[in-house]
Amino acid sequence: MRKIELLKAGKYGLEGRLLKANTFQHHTGYQINIFPFKTQPGGHVFKNDFLSFQGIMGEVIRLSNNTELDKFKNTANYKTELKQTILKNVLEKVETSEKKQLEDIINKMFFEHDNSLFKYDFHVISYKNFINNNNAIKDVPVFISDVFIQNNEQFKALFSENKSKNILNQLISECLPNHIDKKDSKRDKQIFKNMIPAVTEIFQKDFDFLMSDKDYFLENFELFFKYYYFFYFTQLTFKLDNFGQQDYHIKPIYFSMDWENLSESRLQLHKIGWREVSKHYERVFAHANALELINYILVDNTLIGDYDEITKLFNSFEESEKEEFKTCLEQLLEFYKNEVKTLNPPASWEECHSNLNLKSFDQEITTLIYSLWYTIRYQFENGKRNKPYKDYALWLSSFSKENFTKSGGRLGSKLVLSQEILLFLTKLCVGNREKIRLKSFWEKLQERGITFDETSKLEVIKLFERINLIEKKSDSGDAQYIKSSL
Q1: Alpha helix segments (H runs only) across 244-318
Q2: Mean pLDDT of 287-291
Q3: CA angle (126, 213, 115) in 5-degree steps
Q4: Could you tell me where the beta strands, DSSP code E, fall in 7-107?
Q5: Taking 90 as the threshold, does the pLDDT of residue 201 lie above it?
Q6: Least buried of 188, 290, 373, 402, by fewest C-beta within 10 Å?
Q7: How far apart are CA 342 and CA 433, in angstroms?
Q8: Distance CA 464, CA 470 (A)
Q9: Residues 250, 235: contact at Cβ < 8 Å?
Q10: CB–CB of 292/29 below 8 Å?
């Protein structure tokens, strides 16, 4: 019989980690790490970083090289100070009597209007910094590194190469300040767990394809990671609400083009659109805590993983082991209800239990998992911790709103793609082929989590016809092909 126990006492047990001054605190990431989000501050304060994504990806690159920005990294004037350092180094390096003219040339060619350095090569991205320097955002690049990059040598090679044939590019690269080595420090939380391998597998295929055209990859570097960040977390919220009941398959989400006007009747036909997505976002903190707490139940001194892994493990148990696991889960629930004293009347644990009795599942383990999750959710939605619960979800909703939604007036927000994003995704779908059938194109978009209604499909086809991306093999239009975007 396997050893099944609830880790309650001790420094790394429930009491040692979650009880501070006899008050229960919802800490996540110690037993299983899923979301790189915080309750303080809410994600809405990072809107500019979510839109740019350059500072986030700059940190991802630095993490892969185990380096960090030099001393002026946390100043509000980072871009200006970096620019001044580069210009100073250039003027010291180049012997010329026309220093003012040289400075003007460098200014115009290599710096944007806000003093940010122009992205002329991959290694330049490692000099991009966060717009909001609150430390809370630094878990986002750690997540991207853990889940998408891992030890990808191709990724590291992108930034170690500096083979520009442009003399001025070479000059600027030589005048960039050196990064400093990052001090080794032990992580106090788990490595972020890849919860949707189906998404990261497609990511890797698209990454390999983009490596064949590095200029195009450089141009769309942030957009690529930004979309996969959205794709991964949106699919994860749907998977978590499945509670491990069955094997998860990617659910395409309805988008429209950003120039379209949608009627209420069209929006109602979008089975999975922004309304549905945002509802799933709202519940993520309950999932983060449910999985954290249930992983204080150890089986043979080993963490039990996500809902899918727990379900498979439970179904492999002998009857006596199932009973032992249920006992541990009951003890966990009792511990939680006894220690969490923040419900606002008339909410009560009795009402919570009564609500649970109305819900049933085919598998016993699903009912057990759901009971824990619902208890945590009930506490957040009916207690004094409602604001942190909502602020945590803002890390997803704010990111998505900044990048992939548009206001539909009285109908609320809708998920949209810009022409730029559509053409980028089209290139990924066509891949290294010259062209693919239109039907295959829609399918490959669905593989990447995107679907359109028939009206939006017509809008996409009109765009492709206008820019000469569509090819008809017959007058009837039966065989239509999409060519790789330019």
Answers
A1: 264-269, 274-282, 284-294, 307-316
A2: 98
A3: 35
A4: 19-20, 23-24, 67-68
A5: yes
A6: 188
A7: 58
A8: 5
A9: yes
A10: yes
Q: What is the torsional sign of CA 5, 9, 10, 14? A: positive
> What pLDDT does residue 477 have?
53
User: Residue 161 has what pLDDT?
Assistant: 66
Secondary structure (3-state) at 481: strand
Q: Is 308 exposed, middle or buried (0-12, 13-18, 19+ CB in 10 A)?
A: middle
Tokens 């009837």, located at residue: 476
**In CATH, what number does 418-483 get?**
1.10.10
The model's pTM: 0.95
Buried residues in 25-50 as b, exposed as e (16+ CB within 10 A): ebebbebbbbbbbbbeebbbbbbebb
Q: For the segment 454-475, what is each residue's pLDDT rounded down to a tens digit? A: 999 999 999 999 999 998 875 5
3-state helix, strand, coil in the chain (%, to 5): 55, 10, 35
CB neighbours (10 Å) of residue 460?
A: 23
Cα 471 from Cα 465, distance rounded (Å) = 8
Q: Which of 222, 192, 28 is nearest to 119 (CA)?
A: 222
Dihedral pair phi/psi, residue 106, rounded to 5°: -60, -40
Residue 75 DSSP SS3: coil
Q: Tell me the pLDDT band of 6, cut-offs 50, 70 and 90.
A: very high
pLDDT in tens, 40-98: 999 999 999 999 999 999 999 999 999 999 876 556 789 999 999 999 999 999 998 89
Three-state secondary structure call for residue 29:
coil
| Token pair for 36 | 């790189």
Closest CA to 140 of 36, 27, 285, 32: 36
Between 410 and 55, residue with greater pLDDT: 55
Cα–Cα distance measured from residue 390 to residue 285, given in angstroms and rounded to the nearest whole number: 8
Domain regions of the chain by residue span? 4-28+276-397, 43-196, 418-483
